[in-house]
Amino acid sequence: YQSANPLITSTKSMEFDGVDDYLNAGVLPNSFKTAFSISAWLWTDTNTGSHQIISTGQGAFSQIYQFGTGLRLQILGGSGYNNIIISSSYFSADYQGKWVYLTLVFDGATIKAYRNGIENASAVLTGTLNSITQEANIGRWQGGGEVWKGKITEFGLYDRGLTSLEVASLYNQGMPTNLL
To answer: 105: burial class by Cβ within 10 Å (0-12, 13-18, 19+)?
Structure first.
């Protein structure tokens, strides 16, 4: 979607073995402290355990991850780490072993989770977010471990909150083809 201005995108899928595979995305800009969006087609091979989608180690968001069937966000602010359960059933059995389009939109106060272009859950964030100073990892916790088990493709990072129309447009561009 041309006007969405992604900072990082990929048209190739990557299969994560759940052991040591990840992608280093470099240091994200500090504008992510005020607003951001993350989108990706995800395929999870499991709905147990903790598996990272993206981790910065600290900063605007420390990690966005699958925890069992849930979707969680961990932020690091002035009062330490805060774990926010965005959805307790985002990766339920109905969405395991299938492509799911995830979009997270943070507008400076609320984070919204979209599944397949439709808002699924939201959570209010309070406090000031820290600056990002470490490189972001896609598919692995910053310190190692909690590696994604499945596939990720068309990953996009945006330094602003996407509108619901932009989220729907990105989703409607179509489901990825499994070429493996």
So the answer is: buried
